[in-house]
C-alpha cells in the first residue's frame, strides 16, 4: 500500500479540515462576543465560557495546521508552505489563497498575543484581539473563493449559516448593550 500525494484522499481531508476550521472559528467568535458582553448565568458561568473559547481556539489551530499541511502536501496544486503564510504570492488562485494566508496570519497573531497577554498588558492584548473580527470574514471569503464546496448548495448554506449566526450574535450584543445591566442597578 502506498500513500498518494494526489487524488481524492488529500482533497477530501483538505476540504474537511477547512470546513471544521471555519465552523470552529465561527463558534470561537460567538463565544468571544458572549464573553465580552459580561453577561453570565448560573447554568453557564463566565469561566466556563472562557474555557470553551480557549479550547475552541486550540481546536482551530489543530484543524488549521492539518488544513495547511494537506494543502501543501497535495501535489494536485503547487501551493507551498510560504503561500500559506505570505499573502498573495501564490500562482494558484492568488486572491483567494492570499485571503486564507491573511486569515491564518491573523489567527496566529491572536494566539501569540493571547499567550503573551501577561507581558503585553490587558489593554494592548484587547486592542490586538479586535483583529478576530477581521479574521473571521477573511476566512469566510477564502472558503467561498477557493473552496469547492460553495459551488454546491450545502456549501453556500453552510457559509450563509455562519454569517447569520455571527450576525445574530452581534445584533444580540448591540441590543443588550442598549439595556442597562441588572448588576448595575442599585437596590434600596
Automatic annotation (TrEMBL):
It holds the Pfam family Ferric_reduct. The chain crosses the membrane at residues 12-35, 56-76, 96-115, 157-176. This is Ferric reductase-like transmembrane domain-containing protein. Its main location: membrane. It comes from the Bacteria. Keywords: Membrane, Transmembrane, Transmembrane helix. It is found in: Membrane. It is a multi-pass membrane protein. Residues 17-138 form the Ferric oxidoreductase domain. The keyword Zinc-finger does not apply. It comes from Catenulispora subtropica.
